[in-house]
Amino acid sequence: MASPRSSAASARPGGSGLLAGRTVSRVGYGAMQLSRLRADRDAGVAILRRAVELGVDHIDTANFYGGGFVNGLIRDAIRPEDDVTVVSKVGAAANPGGPRPLRLAQRPEELRAEVEANLAGLGVDQLAVVNLRRADAGPGLRPEGGQVVDLDDQLAVLTSLRDEGKIGAIGLSSVSLDVLRRALSAGPVCVQNAYSLVARDDEEMLELCLAEGIAWVPYFPLGGAIPGLPKVTDEPAVIAAAEAAGCTPAQIGLAWILRHAPHTLLIPGTADAGHLEANVDAGAVELDDKTLADLDAISARAGRGRDRT
């Protein structure tokens, strides 16, 4: 069965992991959903402060989250003495008034402009890590026309920005296995791809990251973020494990990811303080061998289901 421990058992939620040579908590925080709190800025700052109080020292953001609003919250809430690693992202831009809230911004000059916007919005001289958000894999936008840009051209501008001292390290997001292999010479420190207990298509990529010392930072860790995607919390085995452990199905789903691979860093996002605390507490849920076997079997069934479609 699964058994929970108090989140106070560890100074860092989920234990310690490595990101760009820095030791960080394995349970971090994804800031995208803070854009919902535009009408209550104080509430957004309070959630970020609460995350720090809970031991979170790894925050994921982007200038295109809320058109710069989220970066402004982080600038106001996070202090130098908090020693928080803030990871930003380029490759897209806010698209106010458009059919989707985001548009791709893949061209080298757009990547440089987004780096500069992140620097200004966060009020820093250097971005610790910048993820290149491509659109090779996972749900969401696909590049067309002038947004189809060769990886080498993108890495060239990012390595130049790294040489200039404007970014500390390069990461990748929404990439294929082939793109990751091509990018290894640039020294990526993390990969962000859609991945969960019910969506494990990138298992080979996860293993390559482990072999290369690259942090694996899954987004959509509970699935279901887009209509039509399966949800971890709907799985009977997940529900049963949660009932046995006295925790929530979402906590089981997050705990499974942490247990599955030691180089995983989680960035679950929320705009709710209660959900934030539950996500942090997921780092203290222990899973025994039988529970793990039951959960691992879910992905096998899901794979057979995909093969039939």
Task: Jot down its keywords.
disordered N terminus; alpha/beta; two-stranded antiparallel sheet; 10 helices; TIM Barrel; 7-stranded parallel beta sheet; 309 residues; disordered C terminus
Helical amount among residues, as a percent range? 25-40%
Q: What's the structural domain tally?
A: 1
Tally the helices.
10
Unreliable sequence segments:
1-10, 303-309
CATH architecture: Alpha-Beta Barrel
Characterize the largest beta sheet: strand count, sense, and whether it forms a barrel: 7 strands, parallel
Give the full name of the CATH homologous superfamily.
NADP-dependent oxidoreductase domain
Strand order of the largest sheet: 4-5-6-9-10-11-12
Beta-strand content estimate: 5-15%
Structure explained in plain terms:
This protein has 309 residues and is of the alpha/beta class. The chain has one domain: NADP-dependent oxidoreductase domain (TIM Barrel, Alpha-Beta Barrel). 38% of the residues lie in helices and 15% in strands. It contains 10 helices and 13 strands. The strands form 4 sheets. It has a 7-stranded parallel β-sheet. The protein has a two-stranded antiparallel sheet with strand order 1-13. Strands 2-3 form a two-stranded antiparallel sheet. Strand 4, helix 1 and strand 5 form a beta-alpha-beta unit. The longest helix has 20 residues. The chain is globular, with a radius of gyration of 19 Å. It starts with a strand and ends with a helix.
